[in-house]
Every structure is written in C-alpha cells, then in structure tokens.
Amino acid sequence: AAPVDFLQELPSCQSARRRRGGTQERRPALLGTAGGRGAVARAQQQKRAELAARPAREQPLSIAEKRTLRDSQQAETERLSRWKKWRRTSSKSLKKALSEVRGLSSYLVLWRHDMHSIEGKFGTGIQSYFSFLRFLVLLNFIVFILMFSFVTLPIIISKHGIFNSTIAYISPKNTDDNCTIYEPSGNKGLVYFYAYIKDLFSGTGFLEVTSLFYGYYTVDAVQISIMRYNLPLAYLLTTFAYLALSFLWIMKRSGEGFMQNLVHDADPFQSYCNKVFAGWDFCITDPSAAQLKQRSLQYELQMDLQEEKLKQKIAERTMKEKLRIYSLRIFINIIVIAILSGCFYSIYRVTVFSQENSNVSIRSDTRTDSTNLLVQYLPSMVITLANFIGPLIFSFLIGFEDYTPAFEIKLTLMRCVFVRLANIGVLLFSLWSQISDCGADKCKPCGYNYKLYPCWESDVGQEMYKLMMFDFLVILAVPLFVNIPRKLLVTHSSCKVIQWFGLQEFQISDNVLEIIYGQTICWIGTFFSPLLPAIATIKYFIIFYIKKVILIHTCKPAARPIRASGSNFFFLVVLLIGLILAFLPLGVSIARIPSSKACGPFRNFNTSWEVIPHTVLEFPTVLQQILFGMASEAFAVPFFMIICIIMFYFIALARAHKRVVEQLREQLVLESHDKMFLIRKITEAQR
C-alpha cells in the first residue's frame, strides 16, 4: 500500500483526480484488475512470439546469442513436416526475391542520382522543387499514354489497315452545308523552309492537319476486325479519365504533406522545439549550403520572434490605428483589383484583335509570315508580360499592408497564382466570346461563328499550343540572356553596383508557379490537342536540366527558404487549384458550346456531352432503367443523405482523434512534472 500512496502524490495522479472532480483513491485502477493483467500478459506473449518468428539477424541480440538462436531455429525446422518445410523455404525465397526486385527498381527511378546530388548540396527545400518537376513529367507521360492508346492509336491502325481495320464516316444530318466546310491552312506546293519554322511555332500549316490537333480525329467509328470502336465515346471518356487520374494522384500525394503540415502548425512551442532540436538537415554536405542552412534557421527564429512581437503590437493597437491600417489595406486591394482588371481587359482586347486579324490574314495572305506570326503570338506575349509585372507590383505593395512575414509570403503567392491562372481563363473567355459571337445572324445555321471558326476546337488547341511553346521559349531565354550574363558580370566585374545586385536567387515558389502555369495549360489543351501531354513531358524533361544547370552554376539558394514538407504541400495545393480551374473551361466546352460540324469526332452531336445519352440509349432496356434510376431524384436524395452521414461520422472521428492527441500532449507534460517530482523526492531522501 505504501508505494500506491506514494504514486498518488504524483502531479499526474492529482491532476486526474481534480479533472474527475473527486478525491477517491484509484487503488484498483493503479494495481490493475485480473482481466487487465491477463490482457497485458497475453499482449506480451504475442509480442515475444512475433519476435521469435523473425530471422536471427533481425533480433536485437549479440552475435553469440544470434548464433544460439539460429541453431535452435534450425533444430526446430528439422522436426517440421515436408509441407511446412516447403512453405517456410518458399516464403523465405519469395521475400528475398521481392527484396532484390525492390533494390533493383530503386535504380530505375527517374533522376535518382541527380536528386541525391541536389539534396546533398542544397538541402531538401530545393530538392522538393525538382521532385515536384519529376512528378509532373510522370503525370504527363501517363496522360499521353492514355490519349495515344485510346484516341490516336485506333485511327493510326485503321488508316494503315492493320488487323483488317477500317474507318467509318457518318455524314452529319440536318446540318447546313456551309457548316461542314473546313479547309485547313496546310502548306501546298513549293514551301520555303521558314514557313515550316513559322508553322512549328504557331501550330498552323502542316501541323494543323496532323494528329496533334482535334480536327484530325474526324472519325465516327473504327472497325477493328469484328469489333466496332466508338471513337467519340472513347475520346470523351479518356478526357474524363486523365482529369480523374490527375485529381486522385494529386490528392494522394497531398495527403502526406497535409498531415506533416498539420502536425507542424499544431503548436507554436512544438514548432520552436523542432527548429531548435530537429531543424538541421543532415543531407547537406556542401560548406556554403551548410552556412546557408544556419542563416535559414537563424532567420526562421528571428521571424518567429518578430511575429510574436507583431501579434503583441496588433493586440495593443488603438481604434484610430486599426482604422488607418484597414483603410490602407482596402485602398491597396482596390489598386490590386484595378491592376488585375487592366491585365484582364488587355488580354481580352489583344485576343480579339489577334483572332480577327490572324484568321483574315491566313485566308487572304495580306500580311507577311513574320507579321502574321507576331499577331498570332500577341495574346501569349501579353499574358507573359502580365505574369512578370503583376508579381513585382504585388511584392512592392504588400510591404505597406502591415501583415506578419509569414502571411505576407502566402498572400503574395496567392495573388501571383490568381494572376497566372486567371489570365488563362480570360484568354478562353475571349475565345469563346468570338466563337459564340452571333451578331448579324453569324451563328444561325451552326450555333457558332462558323465563318471565322469552321473548326473552333482546333483553334483553341492552337492557342494552348502557342501558350505552351512561348512559355517554354521564355524559360529558355531567361538563363541565356539574364542569368548567365549576370553571373559573368558578378564574377569578373568589380563595380559596386553590380556586386550589390549579386547573383540571382533560386526562388522555389516562382519556379513552381511557372511550371504549374504550364501544367494548367496542358490540362485544358489536351481535349483540343490530344498529343499536348507529350510536348509537356519533353518540355519538363528539358526544364529539369536547365534548372539544374542554373542552380549549380549561375544562381544561389534563396536567403528565405521554405521547409520541404510545407513546400510540397503548398505546391500540390496550387496544382490542385490549377486542375480545378481546368475543369471549368473543359466543362463549358463539352456541355454548353455547340461542337464543330466540319471536324472532330463530335460533328454529329450538338455538344460533346450528347454522346453519353446517345450511347446509353443503345444499351439493353434493363440497364437503361438502372442508369436512369441512378440519375433520378429518387436515388440522388438518399445517396446525398448517406454521404452526409458518412461525412459527419468522419468529422466526429476526427474530433475524437484531436481530443486524444490533446490528452496525450497533456500526459507528456504531466510525465515531465512527475519526473521533476521524483527527482525532488530522491534529492530530499538523500539529504
């Protein structure tokens, strides 16, 4: 009884009694019931059995003890039956084979050595950018495999007559003849070499009639031997498949980063302890990178202190100071909205001008090739200029809004994300306004402006292609004309102004926004240009080596780096925003805008979505009734209620887990108090 009474004096026991609101002794709970002791004994016995089943080399024993254990295991094996011996031997062989396969597969990981080299020299923060770039290369490659296998390959097979395959064409019914006229601007006769260069950058000419664009897939069905392949249905379902695949893959990768981010931001004191005791990156081997990491940790601690000081300052603000700050923030946000509106209006006007003049010049040949190429690239140039100027202005204005340093970074990045992704949306809106421009009965026969856009899907695909090509050219030009000359000037010039500018910093966030912008273009453009993911794969593959050379030879790491776990989660969140943005224009194009009657697999349907109900009507009657029943309100309302119940269950489960985590944290604090109490008692006893 004496030890129990002593244990009841511990701070944790007293705290538990206060929480229950009573002072009853917990002798049975402390001593434990027979059932509890039996459960503990069974758990220990099971643990010992699992430990004994493991190989001798995995046991936490000395060499002599491992040898003795191995001999006893071999003696037990001799007493087994042949069947059990064979099962044990085959299990060991299978485990060994799987282990060797996993070891060999690690050598097949893309850029494995380069990743380790970057991580060793510059830390995990910069390595996370290159890991993200590798993820986009793999994602685009798989999307390309999907589109090529289910859309492009059947047409290639049928055009060459492989497997006795043929192409089926169905003439559009109840359609005006003017709507079916489509004459691609392909090169005819003797063509100069520079015309091919122009076509390569603009997507017109010889590229317009290739499998790169939507107009090439003017096929209703492919007959492969005795099987009829419904190409319009395959085209639409493959589009849904690559969007769903991208969404699920991003969610899977972001789940781990979200959990790490949640744990890191749960408690400021825990974050401080992580920085002090576990903040060092032991992958760093380069001395300059080590010094940079030291400055980074010092900067993070300074920022934490500065944020706490700023929070205290915010709490002590008077009403007059609050009114001044809020008025200034409202004024600055009005300026930001005005800048965004100016960018959007400029993109809209330039897109309208480019579409009207480039299409007229192509058909009438009134302009030179260089002038026409410049007119076609005007939207891409204006969007790139807006993407460059907007972030600079936002970075300047954020200093006057008096936010915490961490919130300043997040707000600036979100504004930059909005500028880059919204510019694409404005471009598409401008194109749709031209396509759906029905003034003076332009759209009456076909439902769209068939004179200016006989195959509007290919025109949208060409705009996405030009955006991707121009973005790639800018990424190539910046190192050649900015980073390398700046490196040479800083290295070989002693001018104080040049030395003050110094080397270009490798800004992770800016580089990530750059490739997410290109990936959003790829997601939107894949429906209108099925082979665009192949171009994106090659583009990101080249960008990896360009950025690696820039990082090693011409840039220095940023003085304010971000954590690898937090950066990975942020990258994926922004990528998810880009994917959601891609859903909107694709949904409008598929469900609302009339499909072209002169080209493409959906020329016999009013919209691309109509292929789904048309296919359902060909199913057996029973299956039709099941599908229509699933689409009815009688199924939707109970399904929604079940989903809500499941959601509330998981919310309650999350709250319970959060409560358990809080209790465990309290228990850790109480354990530290118990240790101090025991040390004090021992010291008193010794005295």
Summarize the structure.
By secondary structure, this protein is mainly α.
Describe the structure.
The chain has 687 residues and is an all-alpha fold. It has a domain at 632-679. It is 73% helix and 2% strand. The chain is built from 24 helices and five strands. The chain has helices at residues 2-7, 11-20, 27-31, 34-53, 63-78, 82-105, 112-122, 124-159, 193-202, 231-264, 268-278, 287-315, 319-364, 369-376, 378-397, 405-435, 456-492, 496-501, 508-525, 532-554, 564-591, 611-616, 621-630, 633-686; strands at residues 166-168, 221-224, 227-229, 504-506, 555-557. Strands 1-2-3 form a three-stranded antiparallel sheet. The chain has a two-stranded parallel sheet with strand order 4-5. Helix 8 packs antiparallel against helix 10. The longest helix has 54 residues, at 633-686. The protein is globular. The two termini are 25 Å apart. The model is unreliable at 22-37 (pLDDT under 50).
